[in-house]
Amino acid sequence: MFDEEGRYPVTSNILEMRNITKTFPGVKALQDVSLEVKRGEIHAICGENGAGKSTLMKVLSGVYPAGSYEGEIHFEDEPVEFKNINDSESLGIVIIHQELALSPFLSIAENIFLGNERQKNGWIDWNATNLEAAALLARVGLRDNPITKITEIGVGKQQLVEIAKALSKRVKLLILDEPTAALNDEDSAHLLDLILQLKEQGITSIIISHKLNEIKRIADSVTIIRDGKTVETLEVAANTISEERIIKGMVGRDLDNRYPDHTPHIGEEVLRIEDWTVHHPTDHSRVVIHGANLNVRRGEIVGIAGLMGAGRTELAMSVFGRTYGSNITGKVFKDGKEIRTHSVSEAVKNGIAYATEDRKRYGLNLIDDIKRNVSGSALGKLATWGWVDANQEFVVAEGYRKSMNIKSPTVAAITGKLSGGNQQKVVLSKWMFADPDVLILDEPTRGIDVGAKYEIYTIINTLAAEGKGIIVISSELPELLGICDRIYTLSEGTITADVPRAEATPELLMQYMTQEKE
Amino acid sequence: MSALSSALKYLTSQLRQIGIFIALIAIVILFQVLTQGVLLNPQNVSNVIVQNSYVLILAIGMVMVIIAGHIDLSVGSVVGFIGAVAGVLSVRMGLPWWLAIILCLLLGAVVGAWQGFWVAYFGIPAFIVTLAGMLIFRGLTQVVLGSTQITPFPDELRSLGGGFLPNLGFLFGQLETLTVVLGVLATAFLVGQAVRQRLIRRRLNLEDEPFLWFVVKLAFTGVLVLAITFLLASYRGTPVVLVVLGVLVVVYSAVMARSVYGRHIYALGGNLNAAVLSGVKTKRVTFLLFVNMGVLGALAGLVFAGQLNLANPTNGNGFELDAIAAAFIGGAAVTGGIGTVTGAIIGGLIIGILNNGMSIIGVGTDWQQFIKGIVLLAAVAFDVYNKRRSSGR
Question: Where does the secretion signal sit in this chain (chain B) (predicted)?
Fold first, then answer.
């Protein structure tokens, strides 16, 4: 087979990265990493957080310029050296980062051509911009008007806009960093289908993902990176590779059980919510939660399953100090007595804690250290007459660092520099220090690697064993099935079922999660 | 050797805090040479302290506001407004000086509450609220004064601004006794506190700064306080306003470092959403922050009017800029969440010594402004550079 210029390709590989070594002051982030991607395939890269996946992609896309690393990159059989992202994009290598880089108050079309404007002598050609944008949107299966503002479309659609933007740059190699991390199952499925369609159009993709079922579904091969080194490349297409096999490569050990054993010791009811109705914070006529009833008993781990937009986080936050919503009605009972939870401090005083799904935005003070984050929700416990005992704070935080296995040499380390798993442990420590009776955990393992997930599950079990009531909100059904004693399903703001562990199957839960209002 | 290397390693980790201190010392040495010794002559040291006192008072409140992620542009106008009111109360109405002071501080709290209300509970950005306040209180200053000046002020208010503690006689023939006693007590307090904290940390087995560094820092602080004591004692003694300032620095440093309230300020400046979800009453914290700024602005207004012995419609013009510059030179972050009271004080001193030194050697106000601008930019650029270098991947 010949390429466009009539040359015979030397290899079938579109990309070869050879012996890449990248050091940062004090750390070897990548050591002798090699990656071969075949023309037209979907190539997955997986590895634990901090293994070096993102660093490798930054080397490839020119974020780290040639010269700042050792090793060679060959693209379409030519050695290449990128000084910046523009260099790599001009050859058709486009990276879509995990945190979407769209400008919220510009339109879809403006975003697609941002930095690459359709113009005549410095003046924007709006007709060309919107027409070409519409054509690109059709290719990614998005039917919205190109003049719609980014703020007006959901995360799933924003991801598609990013891909349309990549297509506008005549992409040959598309790199997607955790593309479905923020998407619900439906949007994820749509996105994965789109990547398969692009493959048929001849676009090669590299996909970084934690989600092994996705890798199995769409990838042709998978390269596993561990501790900055290439471990192996496996052919997935042959369908002989099990998820357990991939996990083994990632963590370097067999994970017979992804969920720790949990024998519930269920006691008295600790929290009950009755007839809980919540309206949208700005659009007061919209009901977000309809008359929800639920309860948790001591020692019990209760799950809340629902598709994105079903109102899971909204339900939790409206109970936790009414931090979401308006015109809230309903009752909250704690140990059988009705309580007020109108502010966060009232909720905390009544023994309710909520660990957010978005720890960077809502959970941590990223510019402050571990100890001050840990003490943040219960500083009063360390204070007399308003004065904090900083030494005692140190002792407390040090205790959590050891018991929670937070990987940092000192509790004076800045939380912004920790990995996702360790940040989540800091968030959990913070709420454990507040010593609540009910702990609501919203997506406790989002963006965390497999090994750290197991640790988080163990901590959740320990908390339940101490007699606390735990509510876990999760998008991942296997996770809920793996750790919960009972699962509520939420659909469009209504609790549709209360399923005990023994009866729960993914199919049954999904059926209740998609049940429409009668 | 290992003690030395661990001390050095600690030193580099604390580069920003030490850097600002070294910058101050370098500037002092530079101007000591350029002014041929005038800068550190006892009378001039006394002058520098007195003449910068009101900016330092403002800088304390300002750095707290900045740590919370806000800004206050109105403090210069508040200084003018309170000075005018103090003149009306104590001169035109003839109220006793102490009553005038109390009423002025209360009025400062009301001014702060007014601005705090709009920022905290109404949600208008502090930049806008205090820009409006800058105009409002400058206007009110002129209304209160009726386009005239008020002078002279009662002796007590004048001594708050520019007076000295009573002279209790001399030691060794030339050193003023009370100043020496205060200086020695202050040194003993600083050393005692530091040693006590270190012992507690030792007992709890907490990590701490290296011993060598601890000793060097303590010795340096002690020598510095004693040197200033010596200089002041050989002139006219302790300025009243230095005592006020000393108390404010100690109290506010403690509030920011050790009180629940201070922690809440850092928390909401570092991540407002996380602070709300941790149960911090962020609106109340913000409101009180502006009330506090108002009171400190009023105090600065009293000190300044007393020092000039004059309430004038232009009193305090542009002070907000010096206070803001002091906070940023002292290491406060534009995005909030980072900064210290001592940093702001050192930042304020750097500006004050630049002003003083350049005036002595005859640099015009045009070039003084230029150089201060460059210093502010350099300090923040140094911060940004450091942050970029330390944030690894």
Answer: none
User: Domain residues for B190?
Assistant: 165-238
Residue A259 lies in a domain: no
Mark whether B91 and B212 lie in a shared domain.
no
B279·A390 Cβ contact <8 A: no
Question: Which residues 6+ apart lie within 8 Å of B66 measured at CB?
Answer: B324, B327, B328, B332, B333, B334, B336, B339
Backbone angles phi, psi at B362, to 5 degrees: 85, 25
DSSP single-letter state for residue A406: -
Looking at A408, A435, A462, the residue that finishes a domain is A435
Please give the residue of chain A at the shortest CA–CA distance from B197. A391
**CB-based contact A391 B393, cutoff 8 Å:** no
DSSP letter, residue A9: P
Task: List A72's β-bridge partners, or say none.
Answer: A18
Residue A276 and residue A407 share a domain: no
Task: Measure A351 CA to nearest chain B CA, in Å.
Answer: 12
Q: Which tokens in the block code for residue B62?
A: 């300002």
Contact B258 A24 (CB under 8 A): no
DSSP annotation of A250: H
**Residue whose pair of structure tokens reads 């934690």 in the numeric block:** A210
Residues B133 and B73 in one domain: yes
Q: Do B207 and A344 touch (CB under 8 A)?
A: no
B293 plus B386 within the same structural domain: yes
Q: A120-124, A296-300, A365-369, B372-376 — which is least confidently predicted? A: A120-124
ω before B152 within 30° of 0 (cis)?
Answer: yes
Query: What radius of gyration, in Å, describes the C-alpha atoms of chain A?
Result: 25
Most confident of A10-19, A256-265, B259-268: B259-268
Per the structure, the count of domains in chain B is: 2
ipTM exceeding 0.90?
no
- Please tell me the total number of residues recorded for chain B in this structure: 393
| pLDDT, tens digit, 9 for 90 and up, residues A294-322 | 999 999 999 999 876 788 999 999 999 99
Cross-chain residue pair B276–A387, CB shorter than 8 Å: no
B196 plus B270 within the same structural domain: no
Mean pLDDT, rounded, for B244-269: 93
Say yes or no: A239 and A273 in one domain: no
Highest mean pLDDT out of A138-142, B73-77, B333-337: B73-77
**Spatial CA neighbour of B183 closest among B220, B237, B235:** B237
B50-84 pLDDT tens trace:
999 999 999 999 999 999 999 999 999 999 999 99
How many Å lie between the alpha carbon of A391 and the closest alpha carbon of chain B?
Answer: 7
Domain membership of residue A164 as a residue range:
102-170
Rounded to the nearest 10 degrees, what angle do helices B75-87 and B97-116 cross at?
A: 150
- Listed residue (A462, A394, A472, A395) closest to A432, CA to CA: A462
Note whether residue A356 is domain-resident.
no
Same structural domain, A198 and A87: yes
Cα B161 from Cα B240, distance rounded (Å): 7
Asked which of B203, B238, B273 is the last residue of a domain, the reply is B238
Q: Give yes or no for residue A35 having a pLDDT over 70.
A: yes
- Provide the shortest C-alpha distance from residue B273 to chain A (in Å): 5
Q: B178 and B86, same structural domain?
A: no
- Using the Cβ of B271 and the Cβ atoms of chain A, whether some distance falls under 8 Å is answered with yes
Same domain, B87 and B25: yes
**3-class SS of residue B139:** helix
Distance CA B152, CA B307 (A): 11
Top residue of A49, A53, A58, A344 to mutate, by most chain B CBs within 10 Å, is: A344
The total of other beta-carbon atoms located within 10 Å of residue A466's CB is 12
Other C-beta atoms within 10 Å of B304: how many?
Answer: 28
Q: Which residues of B are less than 8 Å from A423 in CB distance?
A: none
Residue from the list A343, A376, A398 with its beta carbon closest to the beta carbon of B278: A376
Query: What pLDDT, on a 0 to 100 scale, did the predictor assign at position A405?
Result: 87
Structure tokens at A312: 């899971």
